[in-house]
């Protein structure tokens, strides 16, 4: 029987969407989408003190920017507390869990004595097999009767078989003394109820899997396929932290990396398909599998990220790239584009996008579209507007006013004009760059003039000629 693949991303809303969490979400998304399955989102908000609506909004915004669409509504773990409690009581009823009346002081005494005698400090409750008739009228927690003998084997698609001796696992608390369910129980119940078939998550959860499997097996539920993926490290090989720079997805958005490039780079971070570095979403969905995930932590490499983003920018549809540029400008608080400016940039995108790797670089190259007359000429470019250069521009203007305004005709006209003046084309291009954009480094003068049009180009050149 072929069961539909169901994956999930289950972040805790205690801050921004971390780059590591974004990659976990991406792996789950790719695995499900490539197999016609479902990708679900669960907000693990049981920690009421640290969970905030702002953090939930930041996670949703980060996923939206990355283009990771999920099926149905996002589920709140906290909202399922009654269901989680119900499962704990079922286990209690079936004799697979028990009421433990031990106080915190008693547990501490047990551990202190065990430590002094060189025994395991893993708490072993005297209430595990106690006769219910001996139960006092006092607060209690509900603990799982975990297996004491043998071993638990986590069959992991990334880590291989991971074996944990059962005498290393404690009787997990399922319900606290106030009746609230613990996170470890909630995760298991939610995954089962949501029909999750594949749990793809960070390898910092690997030890949790053994304890969660004890609950799953006590309930007689199917064990999902596990894939615990290594964490992301900084360029220095150490666990990713603030000292390495950006941690949250929105920081990468605000630095101007495009979403398609980010998806490609994060997919390739710890997973490989032969030697392929650059690939489309369609290819990633087709190729992505659990066997391609490496066991070692991947290292963040900003140079590689920028390079991949540059390739995706060059390959992007102009209309989609323009929308991404406008979204970036809005997200970073920049003045929206005027209609006329937006039109110019859309005309310039075919040549702008091939030489930029990030959206700020794209805007920098589009400077000639963004400025208005009179053009402010920067110092370096002003050096190209000496007396001879201005005279040359003055002589050129009537030729341009009568020219056919195509790139090919402009190229022929300007090259011919330079030749007639006995100068190299570069000696004409420098003054033209200064006149058209006020900069010494710009896109090709032919491209700029084609986008600006005859009237605007002639006006800018006339201004510079004085």
What keyword list fits this structure?
3-stranded parallel β-sheet; 48% helix; Rossmann fold; 19 helices; single chain; mainly alpha; Arc Repressor Mutant, subunit A
Give a summary of the structure in a few sentences.
With 466 residues, this protein is mainly alpha-helical.
The counted number of beta strands is: 12
Task: Report the total helices.
Answer: 19
Overall geometric form? elongated
Helix content: 40-55%
End-to-end Cα distance: 81 Å
Q: In CATH's first tier, which class of the domain at 79-229 applies?
A: Alpha Beta
Strand-residue proportion: 5-15%
CATH superfamily of the domain at 79-229: HUPs
Keywords: Aminoacyl-tRNA synthetase, ATP-binding, Cytoplasm, Ligase, Nucleotide-binding, Protein biosynthesis
Pfam families: Anticodon_2, tRNA-synt_1c
Domain Glutamyl/glutaminyl-tRNA synthetase class Ib catalytic: 4-306
Subunit structure: Monomer.
What does this structure look like?
- The protein has 466 residues and is mainly alpha-helical.
- Among the domains are: 79-229, Rossmann fold (3-Layer(aba) Sandwich), CATH 3.40.50.620; 379-465, Orthogonal Bundle (Arc Repressor Mutant, subunit A), CATH 1.10.10.350.
- The chain has 19 helices and 12 strands.
- The chain has helices at 19-33, 53-66, 81-93, 104-116, 183-193, 206-219, 249-254, 259-268, 281-287, 302-315, 318-331, 339-352, 359-365, 367-370, 379-382, 387-401, 407-421, 425-437, 445-465; strands spanning 6-9, 38-43, 75-76, 97-100, 141-144, 151-156, 160-165, 173-175, 198-202, 225-229, 232-233, 298-299.
- The strands form 5 sheets. It has a 3-stranded parallel beta sheet with strand order 1-2-3, with helices on one face. The chain has a 3-stranded antiparallel beta sheet with strand order 4-5-8, covered by helices on one side. Strands 6-7 form a two-stranded antiparallel ribbon.
- The model has no long low-confidence stretch (mean pLDDT 95).
- It catalyses: tRNA(Glu) + L-glutamate + ATP = L-glutamyl-tRNA(Glu) + AMP + diphosphate.
- A motif ('HIGH' region) lies at residues 11-21.
